Amino acid sequence: MPEKPAVLFVCLGNICRSPLAEAAFRAEAKRIGLDADADSAGIGGWHTGEPPDARARAVAKRHGIDIGGYRARKATPQDFRRFSHIVGLDHENLAALKAMRPANATAELSLLLDHVEGRKGESVADPYYGSERDFEITWADVTDGAQALARRIAKA
Ligand code: 4NP
After folding, report:
1. What is the count of structural domains for the chain?
2. How many angstroms is it from 49 CA to the middle of ligand 1?
């Protein structure tokens, strides 16, 4: 069990949605004075060691955040004890996380948009085959989710 809140955001490739969710969470935690660790990972390991997708780096930059130093990795069963919260970006990610969750898991598992009033059960759509506009939608969605989650953890 981590000593302080530690949140892992998980999408499929860890190069588009989850690094953006991590960045939005770090920004909100800093803004509200929440001392928490954050990381992101993918269900798949195809992009391990790579920086986020150029379009994800660009949308983060347009919103004032540099994610060029992030590197992709695959989610592991050990993450369920290292993190207090594991957050899937869509339903498929959540189902894959449930399937890999070890018996001794301590992390709370959730869907990102479940934290947003009125958006319970919604997935953050995969923008990988989309346009710049889709990445702006992704940014707006992950920002809503990450802000709501940071505020909930800060209140707990
Ligand atoms: P992400 O987007 O899950 O938001 O990082 C994707 C990135 C890469 C792949 C799929 C989704 N891929 O199949 O390589």
Report:
1. 1
2. 14
CA 34 from chain centre, in angstroms, equals 17
Indicate if ligand 1 lies below 6 Å from the C-beta of 13: yes
Are the beta carbons of 59 and 112 closer than 8 angstroms?
Answer: no
Q: Which residue in the list 53, 90, 126, 144 is annotated as catalytic? A: 126
Q: 90 lies in which domain range?
A: 6-155
Q: In this predicted model, what pLDDT tens digit does every residue of 8-57 receive, in sequence order?
A: 999 999 999 999 999 999 999 999 999 999 999 999 999 999 999 999 99
Question: What is the secondary structure of 51-115 as a DSSP string?
Answer: PPPHHHHHHHHHTT---TT----B--TTHHHH-SEEEESSHHHHHHHHHH--TT--SEEEEGGGG
Whether residue 96 is contained in a domain is answered as: yes
**Residue 34 in domain:** yes
Give yes or no: 126 in active site.
yes
Q: 3-state secondary structure string, 71-83?
A: CCCECCCCHHHHC
| Residue of 9, 10, 11 best suited for mutating to test ligand 1, as the one with most atoms within 8 Å of CB | 11
